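Weekly structure sync, notes
Attendees: PL (lead), two postdocs, one rotation student
Agenda item 3: pending single-chain targets
PL asked that the sequence for the first pending target be pasted directly into the notes so everyone works from the same version. It is reproduced below exactly as submitted, 122 residues in total.
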Amino acid sequence: MARLGYDAINVGERDIKSGWDELAGLTGDRHLLVSANIVRDDTGQAVFAPSAVVRADSPDGKTRRSIGVIGVARFNPLFRVAGPGGSVLRIDAPAERVRAEVERLAAKKVDAIVLLAALHID
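Predicted structure, written out during the meeting:
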């Protein structure tokens, strides 16, 4: 996806359901992956960057904007998979994690914030 020009990719439940090692084997360099609510069960810390700031140029190249991109997955209280270093990963409810990232990105004075959400309609 990096070769296609992607700057940020949200990680969803399907992407991580086979565990950390499987995803790492498929993705190699994970610098594009974002998810604010896929976390280590033992620490509650996100295992991916919760968000990324990407730069976008206008078609004429005269204007450059900074865009905060937040990733979240659908809350699943039963979800548990193997994580890095023998940890277990879970998916937290997204609302508070998104709110915290919006505040953090707003403090960075980004021009826009985009939410990449793999969420069920509910």
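Discussion points:
- Helices lie at 13-16, 20-27, 94-107.
- The radius of gyration is 15 Å.
Action: rotation student to compare against the earlier draft before next sync.
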